[in-house]
## 1
Amino acid sequence: MGSTIAAIILAAGQGKRMRSRLPKVLHPIAGRPLLVQVIRLALARRCAPIVVVVAPNDEAVRSAVRAAFPDAPLRFAVQPRRLGTADATRAGLAAIPGHRGRVLVLYGDVPLLRPASLARLERAAGRASLALLTAEVDAPFGYGRILRQHGHVTGVVEEKDATPAQRALREINVGVYLCDAALLRRAVGRVRRNNRQREAYLTDVVGLAARGGGAVAVAADPTEVVGVNSRAELARAEAILQRRLAAVHQARGVTLRDPGSTFLSLDARLGRDVVLGPGVQLEGAVRIAAGARIDGPTVLKDCTIGAGAVVHSFCHLEGAAIAAGASVGPFARLRPGAHLEHGARVGNFVEMKKARLGRGAKANHLTYLGDAEVGAGANVGAGTITCNYDGGPIKHPTRIGAGAFIGSNTTLVAPIVVGERAYVAAGSTLNQTVPAEALALGRARQVNKLGYAARLRRRLTAREKR
Ligand code: UD1
Ligand code: CA
């Protein structure tokens, strides 16, 4: 369709200033790689096709993109050598040879733009052959500056090529361009590498377009335009995004007791009257239903928390599902596959992995439950350990029936079944089935030697006197 806008996203840069093994565009903010944020932006504007320009052998970038967008209309284009943003754009254009109409060029390291700003750019572009986003910022260092004559944009000059007077300009180039495809093809071919960095600057296209038919500048909010080139800028972008996410959740009825120390994920969904305490850190896809409370400091990664559930301070939950009205911690660690049903309770120093606590079941102190099923209403006493690992390749299961009572300091050597409503005596080590309603004792019988302690003491004092 001639009317759809194609997108070219530049992500082949080296990101030298990050001093990282990870490609710059894969560094995350609020849990998502920078590049993923930019691609989502192009998808939100319904751009098609979307071309991501990558460096040769940049398998890490490709696979991260494929994993994030298995079904999106994405293509990759390879920029053989890093010769600059105009050269990268040329590589992107080569991947959409048949495209007529307009092309949106985005940089993979400018992650905070809102779709609404792009919508404004599209509207303002009108019939101009090129429109670009600009912003007035307090700290323009490092960005390209917008040059104007009589108010009209005449070009962009890069920091390194700018005169002192140009460096004083505070209107910067955001790095977002909407351009007629035919003009862009012609213009990137004409850009020369005659500048301080010996790179083909895409920004030179702005000057060419301005001389041709005019370039339209659209002002964007300074909080949307941060480009990430260094760790310091990464932190700045993260801080801005965190503030934005906090405001979104507050507006929807979430209490953040200390927004400054709360770390939100772009993939978090929080219900009304959720309360997050100081130092709560959400990572990945976290769902928290209405009225649940998470005290901080606590980390929740890829978890679901049911309505009215409580997670107390100092917990670490990953891949766990907590049903409504359940309670966790303080000081609990729930690993992938931990599942608490309605009203179940896990207390301090309890670890769970691939383990389910049935409705109202409890494991309140110092316990490890791995590969275990605990029935409704069962009580797992302090210091209970499921021994699921014998050094071999598979982990063995433990089943504890509904209403069972496991005495403190019990060792359950899996595979093992404890029947419904059975009792296990404290201090037992069990490796055989306990039938329902039975009492299992798996420990040495107690022996009392009367008067033994007194005799022992007498002997010791006699020895001292000698
Ligand atoms: C660029 C702009 C600058 C603007 C700033 C906004 C140019 C010449 N300058 O500067 O005007 O103010 O962004 O953040 O465009 N890339 C490639 N191949 C290359 C070089 C870069 O794909 O050969 C990609 C990078 O991965 C990056 C993007 O293009 O995502 C921008 O490159 P970068 O080197 O970060 O440009 P800046 O110096 O930030
Ligand atoms: Ca940059």
Note: The CA atoms of residues 212 and 345 lie 70 Å apart.
## 2
Amino acid sequence: MASHSRNIDIDMDKDNNSYNKNNKNDILVTPWEVHGDLEDKNYVKLIEKFGTQSISQEIIEKIKKLTGEVHPLIKSQYFFSHRDLDWILNKYEKGEPFYLYTGRGPSGFIHIGHILPWLFTKYLQDKFGSKLLFQITDDEKFLYNVGITKETISNYTYENLLDIIAIGFNPKLTKIIIDTKHINHLYPIATEIARKITFSTAKAVFGFTNTTNIGMIGFPPIQAAPCFLPSIIEKVPTPVLIPAAIDQDPYWRVTRDIAEKLGFYKPAQIHSKFLPSLSRLYKMSSSKPETAILTIDEPEIVEKKVLSAFTGGQPTISLQRKLGANADICPVYWYLKYFFDDEKESFERYIKCKSGNLLCGECKSDLANHTRDFVIEFKAKREKAKDKVEEYMFD
Ligand code: TYM
């Protein structure tokens, strides 16, 4: 664990930005680590602790009105929380377009958990015609992980770029920013931001300690900068919506605090839950490749990983037939639900599982087939991405 991480939750009191000690049973979420049970009740607690909002029926109706539909990841509450989503939709309705902003810290290969918010971001781009800034924080990952070399980060940056481009973002509307390459665009804004954030706030929000290296302490304004870059590019205050998992929220909290002081809109967010690892015990992470499905995995490896996944099943077939299994704690069920099953299929699978009419082997086999096909198709897109890198780069 890096020295600046502490075993406390980012639990910023809405009024005074202070931490509280993390309750043992709660989920621990920082931009660099996530621990605890990824259960729905813990996500509800996160909304309270982070001071975000759940996505109300009113917002869902507004989305439906503007786009004609509601994305399955919103319906299934995978995207479960937000800040100012209603505000940004109202602005859009009145004719003020918004930018999308999301990113990646290139510390390893891409897994299917990363892919979900990016697929959703592409969907938003297509639906709202939004321009997108995609930041690659190669500096963050170098500073955070004291054991990693610049060469390794640079290799992951290139590999991750292929995944990002393979998502299929509109090249005319999308620009990728690599921090160490495009720092000249970020630095002027980052210094404005940095001047407004005290060390005391940074400690409270990120858990920095006396042993944190000063590069990490100085980093947050670099991730905040793309929130304001659209206003500078467009030469008019421009709303920005950030789709990401909720682990990135601490960055947006400090950014929102100082936005208006600098003459910018507060960035809005839509937060997702975490895709769990194949063992269910923690979020999927490329630092634990044995329990993650990576986009560079060979199809037979994907199949092997899926077949050895944890499930909510009973110890024996006869018990499962008799008692049913527990889809609520089953990563296999969740992957099928979020990636491959439609609403009806997922509902039917749930009922059959609970009533003992479905065995885990059948779900695993469905998931293995879907995931293998997905990875094969995605690999082909990654290959094609090799010729498109320059097209997507920030100028
Ligand atoms: P990183 O590389 O840790 O994660 C990239 C994106 O994937 C999300 N994510 C997950 N989502 C679901 N399930 C998981 N298991 C999972 N693991 C990661 C993250 O929330 C993120 O959306 N500092 C950032 C890079 C960054 C960024 C941004 C991210 C820079 N600017 C703006 C989001 C928005 C990072 O290291 O992300």
Note: Residues 92 and 98 are 7 Å apart (CA to CA).
